[in-house]
Amino acid sequence: CTSVGYESFEIDEKLDEKEEDVLSANNFTLEINKKRKQPKRQPKEWRCLDSCCWIIGYLCTTWWLLLFFYHCLPVTLLRVPELPGPGVRLKREGLTALHPVVLVPGIVTGGLELWEGRPCADGLFRKRLWGGGSFTQIFRRPLCLLEHLSLHYETGLDPQGIRVRAVPGLVGADYFAPGYFVWAVLIENLAKIGYEGKNLHMAAYDWRLSFQNTEIRDHALARLKSKIELMYISNGYKKVVAVPHSMGVIYFLHFLKWVETPPPMGGGGGPGWCAKHIKAVMNIGPAFLGVPKAVSNLFSAEGKDVSYIRAMAPGVFDSEILGLQTFERVMRMARTWDSIVSLLPKGGEVIWGNMDRSPEEGHVCDFSKKSHSKTSLTTNNVNNSDVKRGFLVKDLANYGRIISFGKPASVLHSSKLPTADSKEFSRTSTSENFNNFSCGEAWTEYDEMSRQSIQNVAADKAYTTTTLLDLLRFVAPKMMRRSEAHFSHGIAENLDDPKYNHYKYWSNPLETKLSDAPDMEIYCMYGVGIPTERSYVYKLSPNSRCKSIPYQIDNSVHGEDGSCLKGGVYFADGDESVPVLSAGFMCAKGWRGRTRFNPSGIATYIREYRHKPPT
């Protein structure tokens, strides 16, 4: 090969390289031009889920910043002078412990611990499944938690292979969660004046069970009777003061009848047991006549707060992501708890109103403009019938309609609405219900209803406390058969009828007599000035998937300015959970003086506490 040939070969290679460089440069230029010519990408549409995630991120960031500053600032700047608590002030005044005290917690506030469970609960023996500082660990396995907190649907007792029991002692209900106290502050202040284990007791019980079942399974009523008798003797024969809260109020009312009833139904203490051992019953936030929010819990597994969250992020709870179906699983669990049925409104239309009348007529929920009277102490000798707690409203709310399907059904006169007849329910329940085999195993009793039956329940109808029970018997017949063997929600015409000796009536103050204990005292202490759920506007759920709940609160329904209707919920006065009607009626009217419900004339006192938010 000659040198000339070698040089020509090198030249050809260089030319090829130059051509490739030119081509690549041209291609690069063309790509840049194409990108410049392409239209700019449109911003993604902002979804409700994005808003929810943004809010959560904002709250978390704010929390971490506050935590950071809290640890960085000098201690002298963080120290806030605290006012002495009531226990310290009472001690300075020379007061000391006198009567033994028994605390009776309400629903969901008492701790529950695991004694036997499924494989998913390994490592949780005697750990809190509910309440207290450690129960948050179970939220790492939520489906396991729901399974273990559920009771047997037919019996209302333990499912096979699961044993969950109440946490005993004062620690059972002092804190619900870290930083959220229930009885802790009261216990601490009582300790300042000399209370301790020998004269202060927490009557722990499994709040999921019916009241009589707490005795059948755990002997909770018998243990409470023995404890009160022991405290009475060991404290110099001083009578006991009971302090029940919320649902614990009707649980203790049941106990007062049980303890004097002969065995085997009762505790065999005899007619004079209460007069001998009980000094006073100081009811805190009493739910004597039930709470409307128990209705929404059983009917659609939601309430005011859940409905608002659902409106903010409708896709979160209703989505099929991971197959959670949150509401359906919660309803499946809640309908096994007989305690919720105990909180359904009692007294029927006589107490809660009918389609066109209710005791709260003339009240509104603009509490910021409401003039509150000073906290008052009312006894049997004081007549406060002229005291008005409300003020006029633009459009009257028909509170007697506990459930209305659609806003027109909540405001129109009853003559313009279709009637909700109990005969229709009983007739339909046997002819139209069917098992929806295409959806597999039924999760709730809604899965055993036909679509036509579900639509017939709605159909622009409204339900009072009387027809509401018929409605629940129709949509959840198994639950109501089980629960109504333990509870009654009516009002007695003749309390001397022998049927009222049965334990199913003992927790209803309108179907039982107080004990013959004229020296005993009953206090009703509750909050006022907070909008409290009273009735609901519902709609058919747009979700038609298998195992879904067919009804939900219509959070798009609102009233005019100054109206009590907001987000599909009508509000009345109360402490945010219990309406004043339920908390105060028995002390103000039903038990006042010698009545058929209070034949021995036990003294009753009312203490109303105006809500004072922190400033």
Features:
six-stranded mixed sheet, 22 helices, 615 residues, seven-stranded mixed sheet, alpha/beta
Characterize the structure shown.
The protein is of the alpha/beta class. Among the domains are: 117-166, no CATH class; 293-610, no CATH class. The protein is built from 22 helices and 18 strands. The strands form four sheets. Strands 7-1-8-9-13-18-10 form a seven-stranded mixed beta sheet. Strands 11, 12, 14, 15, 16 and 17 form a six-stranded mixed beta sheet that branches. It has a three-stranded antiparallel beta sheet with strand order 3-2-4. A hairpin with a 2-residue loop joins strand 5 and strand 6 (180-181). The chain starts with a helix and ends in a 5-residue tail after the last strand.
In brief:
This protein is an alpha/beta fold and 615 residues long. It has 22 helices and 18 strands.
Distance between the termini: 101 Å
Question: Regions with pLDDT < 50 over 5+ consecutive residues?
Answer: 1-11, 369-394, 427-437
Shape: globular
Mean pLDDT: 83
- Helix percent reads 25-40%
Q: Could you tell me the radius of gyration in angstroms?
A: 31 Å
**Structural class of the helix and strand makeup?**
alpha/beta
Strand order of the largest sheet: 7-1-8-9-13-18-10
Portion of residues in beta strands equals: 5-15%
For the largest beta-sheet, the strand count, sense and barrel status come to: 7 strands, mixed
User: Number of DSSP strands?
Assistant: 18
Transmembrane segments: 46-70
GO biological process, one term: lipid metabolic process
Keywords: Membrane, Transmembrane, Transmembrane helix
Protein name: Phospholipid:diacylglycerol acyltransferase 2
